[in-house]
Amino acid sequence: MRITMEKLVVLVVVILSATSIYAGNYANVIFEKDKTFVLDLNDKENPYVEIEIRDLNGKVLHSENYQTLSIASKKYNLKNLPNGTYEMVIQSKMGKTIYPMTVTFDGVKMSPVSNHVNFKPIITYENDLIEFSQLTLGRDVTFTLSDKEGIFYTKNYKNEASINANFSASKLPAGDYTVTITSNDQDHTYSFKK
């Protein structure tokens, strides 16, 4: 029982640390007149951040990488974008947040982010063992294992704070495989050869 309680305490500390890092240290958007806004890059925990502006089909219209320690804010002018709905995607090594935006003739409006940061999974393959871990904070997650013939294993996780799972690949035939982790309509893939 003592080991289980120690693991629970460690898990709670990790969750609280991760949520406090992302709750207070992610991008802040300041709207200005016309079709401009300033993105305050105050993420001190993740020095490298990638920012993309995409249309709703996923086409990347603008992409930049920043070192957040060397740049505090970045001004964006969207005057050349036609009126419509877009996404600003901000991602670091640990996670990704999607901000829905609407561009109108007189400005830019950002919709509230419903799920904040979606933490990236950690997937490894070594010695016929697939290891999967992810901080999910109660979000639904689907683990899928497939090869070129199609999907042959799926596991759904619901209402989990975090996932730490191992899958044996010892009975799989030699070949190329892909693990896909889906959460909040975001896919993360990891490929390996057995």
Description of the structure:
- The protein is mainly β and 194 residues long.
- The protein contains one helix and 16 strands.
- The strands form four sheets. Strands 3, 4, 6, 7, 8 and 9 form a six-stranded antiparallel sheet that branches. A four-stranded antiparallel sheet has the order 13-12-15-16, with no helix packed on it. Strands 1-2-5 form a three-stranded antiparallel sheet, with no helix packed on it.
- A hairpin with a 4-residue loop joins strand 3 (48-55) and strand 4 (60-67).
- The longest helix is centred in the first third of the chain and has 23 residues, at 2-24.
- The radius of gyration is 20 Å and the shape is elongated.
Topology at a glance:
Blueprint: H1 2-24, E1 28-31, E2 36-40, E3 48-55, E4 60-67, E5 73-77, E6 84-91, E7 95-104, E8 107-110, E9 118-119, E10 122-126, E11 129-135, E12 141-147, E13 150-157, E14 162-168, E15 176-183, E16 186-193
Antiparallel strand pairs: 1-2, 2-5, 3-4, 3-6, 6-7, 7-8, 7-9, 10-11, 11-14, 12-13, 12-15, 15-16
